[in-house]
Specification:
- The complex is a heterotrimer.
- Chain A contains 16 helices and two strands.
- Chain A is mainly alpha-helical.
- Chain A has two domains: about 15-295, Orthogonal Bundle (ABC transporter involved in vitamin B12 uptake, BtuC); about 300-335.
- In chain A, about 55% of the residues are buried.
- By secondary structure, chain B is mostly helical.
- Chain B has a single domain (about 30-320), classed as ABC transporter involved in vitamin B12 uptake, BtuC, CATH 1.10.3470.
- In chain B, helix 4 (about 70-85) runs parallel beside helix 6 and helix 5 runs antiparallel to helix 11 (about 215-245).
- Chain B is globular and about 80 Å long.
- Chain C has two domains: about 5-240, P-loop containing nucleotide triphosphate hydrolases (Rossmann fold, 3-Layer(aba) Sandwich), CATH 3.40.50; about 260-495, Rossmann fold.
- In chain C, strand 14 and strand 15 form a beta hairpin.
- In chain C, the strands form four sheets. A six-stranded mixed β-sheet of chain C has the order 6-7-8-3-9-10, sandwiched between helices. A six-stranded mixed β-sheet of chain C has the order 16-17-18-13-19-20, with helices on both faces. A four-stranded antiparallel β-sheet of chain C has the order 2-1-4-5, with no helix packed on it.
- Chain C starts with 5 loop residues before the first strand and ends with a helix.
- In chain C, helix 3 (about 100-110) packs across helix 4 (about 115-130), helix 3 (about 100-110) packs parallel to helix 5 (about 145-160) and helix 14 packs parallel to helix 15.
- In chain C, about 35% of the residues lie in helices and about 25% in strands.
- By secondary structure, chain C is α/β, with parallel strands linked by helices.
- Classes of the chains: A mainly alpha, B mainly alpha, C alpha/beta.
- Chains in contact: A-B, A-C, B-C.
- The interface of B and C includes residues 193, 202, 205, 210 and 211 of B.
Chain lengths: ~325, ~325, ~500
């Protein structure tokens, strides 16, 4: 009971979001029980959600520090293109297991390096995150184009497809990777020393630095972490196509911002939960998948996502303004008494 | 004189100008065709669309905001105009242009209201409207091209002014460049000579002081988004006058390129700083990179790499310079 | 000449828990410099906020301008009535030119749509000529020296046809020569029949510029006198008040070994040749005027902005601290002056704030924090320092000033630092909490910590310190034991 109460107090926003998610899930289930709730469709969702979810976690990390990461998508593709150069070799094709394994490692490692570049420029040089990642977005995209000559890089071992489509005990690898990433992210951000420092830096960098925290290092690690997350997403994306190309997944950039904000993370930094982001991702996924099944045009689905975002923000503002007014009235009443 | 020189070298505009000159010289040495009037008109014509949008983005950035919805606004306006011209082939160019600008202004007004009335951070508000409007337009057109514009409209896009002999041909200045120049002059006049324009700088520089001296911050903020929308509308006309048909997909994602031009031209995303002259340099730099690399047979794939590096280097140098100056600041008048 | 420009009476201002102004009065005539004098917390800045329309006074206040009763609903109202404030940060648009900062106001006021640069230039030139200062009207304000920015702010007030200018600690960031220049400007304004309210607590300049003094103490009106009818000592006595028995905690006997030794520490534009020692178990009070370089010394020791030269030894070890994280490792703690922006992360909880420097001690090998361990430690600190309300999940921004300061203290005491530097520990703290904080600092010293207290409030310095170090213009001018020291003696060293 007590636990429930503390959840209700501390995770109010997440509970509302979860309610919306459940509501949407039920509505979709009623509208199209045979299609939406079919095992095949649920599995499809499980394959699709992780790519997007990992991108959203990558974005969330940056937003928590009061920053922004516009380079998540091109960072992911440049990493998978570099890895692709290795996976397309005859060596990799002759030794598919090693080839795929090393390929995945290279993707994540290169993505981490792209994150390192962002982090150094943001934390140590001190340039606004928005500008740095706008620059690196173009840089990574350009490097990818230079390697691929604008086309796609293919010829990977067919085994690589298994990453995106295989399953362990009926659970897709993709969803396993996503769950592990969520759990790790939760512990890192909401339970660990470093994560707490991230939130503090996002609220007030000066006070945190004055408390003896190496805030530059904290921020640098955030962007490396962001790189690892979009690197993993890059692995899933290129595995789905079994190839690598610069514009794969490019639509995830703005969607990731949408999910993070919808999930309750403050765009000015310092507050937000992993659960909120994950639920927001699930909401967007259910909306797009469900409406798609009942034959709603995919553009219409995007539109509905945008409307949900704006509506939630307006509701949050209005209810916040109302409760502020109430508080002021109460305080005035107390002062009079 | 020394002071003037010092101020010049300090300004971001001059460093961008220097980069342009160096690039232009290098490219011309390899390929003399680069530095001809006809080539200049060509590259400026095709970049005029981005240029017009960047000039709309400039006041938004100066005020301390950001507008991610220019991509959806230009698409919306282009489609509205395309459908309008298909239905009313007997209309005229003035109506067409006005229609686009009004639609753009309305889209901007929505952004302005979301930011000022509901206190939604600009980056999120404009992201939301971008998603909604872009999806609505694509839904309406189903992503299909719109063509069959009336002849009088298309021929308007081929108008050239003057006759300058260049590389064995006689060329005139395309009307699209005239649009760009007119918008540049208008933006300059607004920013420099209207109280609204000065209010934009004041709000971006110090919101509290701006309120204190009596600027209406909400009105200034709403204005910049309306202006950005209006120019995105005009950019839509310019685009159709070049491409002669409407592809609802071409502009998705272009908002970051537009911001990049303004930032290259010295505008600060933190607000308060930015000039029309600088933005023009940003446009020219972008055009030179795009066109010049092709002329010297460097694969066009390097364009974005070069752009990215120039952005990263110029902003880093700027930040480091500022930090050095700040460290020199005297806190206490120490008794010697 | 005897016509009064502004006359206020019955002005009070109540904040939750504190009565910042209690029934004060003040009046000023055209062409006079009337200084408002008082120590920190006397209510000077509250009165400025009321006169500039930033905050309304409590009901019942009477404000007369040229004999007419008036009220300010918005800062604009005050400006229109002819009252301009030169704030300490000048409130200029640093991204714009000098001319625009001075001349644009008229355009705004007249609600013109189009800006006439010629008119603005002329307005700016007139105002600068009026003040007889040489500043390029086309320079960007950001690139000007502090003194010139101040001139721009004054010119801007002149251009707005101000009849009364309020100068809030106008010399705190100026060099000697620049201060002289400011005096000339003030004389000039006086000649041109401007009323000037001069707010300061520096004796030399008060006597240099003022015609009359009004003294406030603890939010109350003490008295008004002509400048030529009072001596420096008498004015100080008025500011300090009846000789209230200051609780003196000084204990000159028990002193441990030296834990911090600073030798010839210098930083260009901040301080020079600073040498002193801190012993375990003593409280050393650093005093002097605002802008004497006290905080700069502390921030250099703590690694926020390291010194250029000199040696710092912690115990016997020579240290080179480049950032606060290293200072923390060496056992140095620093509680900054600005609690709201530097001391606390306001939107986070008491618990998060207290445990911030030492999070690692509550974590396992993987870096995961043990919440129970963390909370029980926090509970202990809350109890020990009597933070109210005693709810660790309360946000720091919801606490009163005194309790906020206790949270900051708890944060640093918990690190078991050997050296604790506290900058203005009781700024904006009510009387009750003040004494509690003093007791906590004494207790820490008793437990063996070396405490360095930076404060502009002399009673505070006299109350908590064992030893007193006085700074003036970036240098140490005196070090003395706190046995028979008087406020007046310290003032002498700080001023002259």
């Amino acid at each position: 009971m007590k636990i429930w109460k503390s959840i209700r107090e501390n995770y109010q926003n997440e509970l509302i979001l979860f309610g919306i998610f459940v509501g949407l899930f039920i509505v979709m289930g009623i509208i199209s029980p045979d299609k939406f709730l079919s095992a095949g469709n649920l599995q499809t969702m499980c394959y699709q959600m992780p790519e997007f979810g990992l991108m959203a976690l990558a974005m969330m990390a940056a937003v928590l520090t009061g920053g922004m990461n516009l380079s998540i998508c091109t960072g992911a593709t440049v990493a998978s293109i570099v890895a692709g150069c290795f996976m397309a070799t005859t060596f990799a094709n002759e030794n598919p297991a090693i080839g795929v394994f090393v390929g995945i490692i290279i993707t994540v490692a290169v993505a981490a390096v792209t994150g390192l570049l962002n982090g150094v420029l943001i934390a140590y040089v001190g340039v606004t995150a928005m500008l740095v990642t706008l620059g690196t977005k173009l840089l990574f995209e350009g490097l990818g184009l230079v390697v691929t000559k604008g086309g796609s890089l293919a010829g990977f071992p067919p085994l690589f497809l298994k990453v995106g489509s295989g399953a362990l005990l009926g659970i897709p690898y993709t969803i396993l990777i996503y769950i592990v990433a969520i759990v790790i992210t939760y512990f890192l951000f909401e339970r660990s020393v470093w994560g707490t420092q991230v939130y503090m830096v996002g609220c007030n960098e000066t006070a945190t630095r004055f408390s003896g925290i190496a805030t530059r290092r904290t921020v640098l690690l955030v962007y490396i972490y962001s790189g690892i997350m979009y690197g993993l997403s890059g692995v899933l994306i290129s595995s789905r196509y079994c190839s690598a190309k610069t514009d794969y997944g490019s639509s995830y950039l703005m969607q990731a911002v949408t999910a993070v904000v919808l999930g309750g993370t403050s765009i000015s930094g310092g507050s937000g939960t992993v659960a909120g982001t994950v639920i927001a991702v699930a909401i967007i996924q259910v909306v797009s998948n469900g409406l798609n099944l009942v034959g709603v045009n995919r553009y219409m689905i995007n539109m509905i996502t945008g409307i949900i975002l704006i509506a939630v923000l307006i509701v949050r503002y209005v209810s916040g303004a109302l409760s502020d007014k109430k508080k002021i009235r109460e305080r005035a009443a107390r002062a009079r008494a | 004189m020394q002071k003037v020189w010092k101020n010049l070298t300090k300004s971001k505009e001059i460093s961008i100008l220097a980069i342009i000159v160096v690039l232009a010289v290098c490219i011309t040495i390899v390929n003399p065709n680069f530095l001809t009037v006809s080539n200049f008109f060509d590259i400026m014509r095709s970049n005029s669309i981005y240029g017009i949008m960047a000039l709309g983005m400039l006041p938004v950035l100066i005020s301390g905001g950001i507008d991610l919805s220019v991509s959806s606004t230009i698409t919306l306006c282009a489609v509205v105009m395309g459908k309008f011209l298909q239905a009313n082939p007997g209309s005229n160019i003035v109506v067409a242009i006005l229609l686009c600008m009004v639609v753009g202004a309305l889209a901007g007004l929505v952004n302005g209201l979301l930011v000022t009335k509901f206190h939604i951070p600009p980056i999120v508000a404009t992201l939301g409207t971008q998603t909604i409007v872009m999806a609505a337009v694509l839904f309406y057109t189903n992503g299909m091209w719109i063509s069959g514009m009336p002849d009088w409209f298309l021929s308007f896009g081929d108008i050239q002014f003057g006759a300058i002999p260049s590389a064995g041909k006689v060329v005139g200045m395309p009307i699209q460049i005239l649009f760009l120049i007119l918008v540049g002059i208008a933006t300059w006049l607004i920013l420099k000579y209207t109280l609204m324009g000065r209010g934009i700088y004041a709000v971006g520089g110090n919101v509290q002081s701006a309120t204190r001296v009596g600027y209406n911050v909400s009105r200034v903020t709403t204005f910049v988004y309306i202006y950005s929308g209006t120019l995105a509308g005009l950019a839509a006309v310019t685009d159709i006058l070049i491409v002669k048909q409407i592809d609802p997909n071409t502009f998705s994602g272009c908002e970051l390129d537009v911001i990049a031009i303004a930032v290259l031209g010295g505008a600060s995303v933190m607000g308060g700083i930015g000039t029309v002259f600088g933005t023009f340099l940003g446009i020219i730099l972008m055009a030179v990179i795009k066109n010049g690399l092709v002329l010297v047979r460097v694969s066009s794939y390097w364009q974005k790499v070069v752009m990215g590096i120039i952005i990263l280097v110029t902003i880093s140098v700027d930040v480091i310079n500022r930090r050095i100056e700040k460290a020199r600041l005297v806190h206490v008048d120490v008794e010697e | 000449m005897d016509r009064v420009f502004l006359e206020i009476s019955n002005v009070s201002k109540t904040f939750p828990g504190v009565k910042a102004l209690d029934n004060v009065r003040f009046d000023i005539r055209p062409g006079e410099v009337h200084a408002l004098v008082g120590e920190n917390g006397a209510g000077k800045s509250t009165l400025i906020k009321i006169l500039s329309g930033v905050q309304p006074p409590d009901e019942g206040a009477k404000i007369l301008i040229e004999g007419k009763e008036t009220q300010f609903a918005h800062p604009i109202d005050a400006i229109k009535k002819g009252i301009s404030v030169i704030y300490q940060d000048f409130a200029l648009f640093t991204n714009l030119t000098v001319a625009e900062n001075i001349g644009i106001n008229e355009t705004i006021e007249q609600k013109k749509k189009v800006v006439s640069w010629r008119a603005i230039q002329k307005k700016a030139k007139d105002a600068l000529d009026f003040l007889n200062v040489q500043i390029d009207p086309n320079a960007i304000v950001e690139n000007l020296s502090v003194a010139k920015q101040q001139m721009v702010a004054i010119a801007s007030a002149v251009a707005q046809d101000a009849k009364m200018i309020i100068m809030d600690e106008p010399t705190s960031a100026l060099s000697r020569g620049e201060v002289e220049r400011l005096y000339e400007i003030i004389d000039l304004l006086k000649e041109k029949n401007m009323a000037i309210m001069f707010v300061s607590h520096k004796m030399d300049e008060l006597f240099r510029v003022s015609d009359r003094f009004t003294v406030f103490r603890d939010g109350q009106y003490v008295g008004t006198t002509d400048a030529d009818k009072i001596t420096e000592e008498e004015l100080i006595a008025m500011m300090v008040g009846r000789k209230i028995e200051v609780k003196r905690y000084a204990n000159l006997e028990e002193k441990g070994e030296v834990v911090l030794r600073v030798e010839n520490l210098s930083k260009k534009g901040n301080f020079k040749d600073i040498s002193f020692e801190l012993h375990a178990g003593e409280v050393v009070g650093f005093t002097g005027l605002v802008g004497a370089g006290r905080s700069e010394v502390a921030q250099a020791i703590f690694g926020i902005s390291p010194a250029d030269s000199g040696v710092v030894r912690v115990g016997d070890e020579e240290v080179h601290i480049a950032n606060p994280a290293q200072a923390l490792e060496k056992g140095i703690a620093y509680i900054p002056e600005s609690r709201q922006t530097q001391g606390l992360v306001l939107p986070k909880t008491i618990a998060d704030n207290i445990t911030l420097p030492l999070l690692r001690t509550f974590a396992n090998k993987l870096g995961i924090i043990n919440r129970e361990k963390q909370m029980s430690a926090v509970d202990e600190w809350i109890k020990m320092l009597d933070v109210r309300p005693n709810d660790p999940t309360m946000l720091a921004m919801q606490l009163s000033g005194g309790n906020q300061q206790k949270v900051v203290l708890a944060k640093w005491i918990s690190t078991k630092a050997r050296i604790l530097i506290v900058d203005e520990p009781t700024n904006g703290v009510d009387i009750g909490a003040k004494d509690e904080i003093h007791k906590i600092l004494r207790q820490l010293a008793k437990d063996g910590t070396a405490v360095m207290v930076i404060s502009s409030e002399l009673p505070e310095i006299l109350s908590v310190s064992d030893r007193i170090v006085v700074m003036r213009r970036g240098r140490i001018t005196a070090q003395m034991d706190n046995d028979a020291v008087t406020q007046e003696a310290i003032m002498q060293k700080a001023l002259v």
